[in-house]
Amino acid sequence: MPVITIVGGQWGDEGKGKIVDLLAEKANVVIRYSGGDNAGHTVINHYGEFKLHLVPAGIFNPGATCILGNGVAVNPPELLKEIEEVKKKGVDTSRLYVSDRAHLIMPYHIILDRLEEERRGGAAIGTTLKGIGPVFTDKTARLGIRTCDLLNETTFRARLKSVLEIKNAVISKVYNAEPLSFETILNQYLEYGEKMAPYVRETTSIISDALLRKETILLEGAQGTMLDLDFGTYPYVTSSSPLASSSAAGSGISINKIDRIAGVFKAYLTRVGGGPMPTELKDETGEFIRKRAQEYGATTGRPRRCGWFDIVAGRFSIRVNGFDTVILTRIDILDTLPKLKICTGYKIGNDIVKNFPADLTVLEKCQPVYEELAGWQTPTNNLRDLKSLPSAARNYVTRLEELLERPISIISVGAKREQTIISRPIV
């Protein structure tokens, strides 16, 4: 049975939650491998509507083991809150596990995130203020606190005392803010530790056993490729790697065990926060897409910037991830538009740019070169097979396949699990 990595191909918010929820029906193990509660997956199924930030979207398959991998930054109160929310809807969480190597988001991470964004002023990155940058900074600087530390009071007390002295010095002397109380954090997090203890495991052995049994494993990404720390629009990026290669490092699964890599792309483009976005629509069409699709962040509620599909960014995403196939979501949002555009290249002066620039001063100058296609102006959300799509919609899908040079295996025509066209099974 296959091991499949699901990766966001754009700037995040591509609808990965629905896709993982759908594919998890046939999966034995679902592993979240990156990010933290700065990412939100909206899932609608027979249990109801959920906005998940940490719990893997495979939780709704009662037969699947769900794992928060070592590459995830875990915010204990957020995780415990989500667990309670899904349990109230009758969802079984007894097979949910958290890696004992995952790093914890601490109160000082969240405070430092906010203070640094305030210091930047007009040059702010546009973070979610969830402490993600600071927690991964501490991980790299070897100042992090992990879930295994949280379950050992002696270790946690010593670790927190040492780290908090440094953080309080920065908070009070650099930012002139109030320092945090050691005892308050200690007692609060020890309580979290008691509640999290049933879920914390050495998860690589669980994964290894699943591989030996040849079970189907889904590796669930967060955010999107263009927010990657190395390959995204730096510095307007997240602080961990959403790429397919990180699904191995962030879960503890050998990279040679991964059979398929699927990239999830919206039929149009969105991003949250700052940074260049060449196909952004700052007009009535952009506002129409935003309102029709309710493009507001599942984590922050911020309005998302909307634009046409960008092939330059898409091909770059395929290159750095090695996507075997593409999953196209939210095509139904385009149902009423008379004309659609696809960006096939960028123009700077008289020069055509086919590769996605690393230098943001260059990217900011890029003007999109568009190819225009006819819209289909008829509803698609009740359709369930490729042949029933309007011819103009099939033309749009086919043109994206040609330009991306990858097959589109799944097309989402609505938010619900069943509102899906599967042309080529992935699982």
Explain how this protein is built.
By secondary structure, this protein is an alpha/beta fold. The chain folds into 3 domains: 3-99 and 201-261, Adenylosuccinate Synthetase, Chain A, domain 1 (3-Layer(aba) Sandwich); 103-145 and 152-196, Adenylosuccinate Synthetase, subunit A, domain 2, CATH 1.10.300; 266-422, Adenylosuccinate Synthetase, Chain A, domain 3 (Alpha-Beta Complex), CATH 3.90.170.10. Helix content is 32%, strand content 20%. It is built from 13 helices and 20 strands. It has helices at 16-23, 76-88, 107-120, 132-140, 147-150, 153-174, 182-196, 203-212, 246-249, 284-293, 311-321, 360-363, 391-404, and strands at 3-8, 29-32, 41-45, 48-52, 65-68, 73-74, 96-99, 103-104, 200-201, 217-220, 260-266, 269-271, 305-307, 309-310, 325-329, 339-348, 351-353, 367-374, 408-412, 420-422. The strands form 5 sheets. It has a 10-stranded mixed sheet, sandwiched between helices. α3 (107-120) packs across α4. It is globular and about 65 Å long.
